[in-house]
Amino acid sequence: MTGIRRLALKRRRLRLTNYRLRKSLILSKKPRLVVRSSNKYIYATLTISKPEGDLVLVSANSKELKKFGWNLSFKNLPAAYLTGALLAKKASKKEITEAVLDIGLSSPTRGNRIFALAKACNDFGLKVPLKESVVPDESRIKGVHIASYMKKSTQEPQFSKVKKVLSSPDEVVEIFEKTLEKLKEVK
């Protein structure tokens, strides 16, 4: 009986899981820093794999930044960095010191939100292997690019929600720094 073809697993067929990558991450025996994003928020979890299923050790999402004074977008690059800082603070409470980055099926584009989150984890004591060439530069992490774009933009409706919160575009960087200071105080 030659020619019998085995059907690929459902999550592989639907392009939801890359099993080869997942296997290599699990074999590292380190917690995985799983980073996912939706249309509104950025989610980060530290998980370990067990035969029964994945076990979440620590999690953080960008919506939690409201408690620390962040009242801008929860899905942009500065919000990703702040979410990573929050996750690293939570991980230090549980004495988790290292993890491997699991970006799933996201494109590993240089300077994107995923790498900003991972850089924040490194900056706040959670060691995540990461090439420096993929990390966004400091000005983008602080939101300088957002402020400069807001200044150049002539379309009023584009930033209507943000302009209700800010009196000037330069406040983006100030709010980022204030939020970061509050996160540093978390024990």
Task: Write a short abstract of this structure.
The chain is of the alpha+beta class and 187 residues long. The chain has helices spanning 10-13, 19-27, 77-93, 113-123, 138-142, 144-152, 160-165, 171-185, and strands at 32-37, 42-50, 53-61, 100-102.
Counting helices, strands and paired strands, the structural category is alpha+beta
What's the average pLDDT? Answer: 89
CATH third-tier fold name: Nucleotidyltransferase, domain 5
**Unreliable stretches:** none
Strand content: 5-15%
Instruction: Please give the number of β-strands.
Output: 4
What characteristics describe this protein?
4-stranded mixed β-sheet, 187 residues, 8 helices, alpha+beta, 4 strands, Nucleotidyltransferase, domain 5, globular
Question: Secondary structure elements and their pairing?
Answer:
Layout lengths: L9 H4 L5 H9 L4 E6 L4 E9 L2 E9 L15 H17 L6 E3 L10 H11 L14 H5 L1 H9 L7 H6 L5 H15 L2
Parallel strand pairs: 1-4
Antiparallel strand pairs: 1-2, 2-3
Helix pairs in contact: 3-4, 3-8
Describe the structure.
Helix 3 (77-93) packs parallel to helix 4 (113-123) and helix 3 packs parallel to helix 8. The protein is globular. 41% of the residues lie in helices and 14% in strands. It has helices at 10-13, 19-27, 77-93, 113-123, 138-142, 144-152, 160-165, 171-185; strands at residues 32-37, 42-50, 53-61, 100-102. It has a single domain (15-185), classed as Nucleotidyltransferase, domain 5, CATH 3.30.420.100. It has eight helices and four strands, in the order ααβββαβααααα.
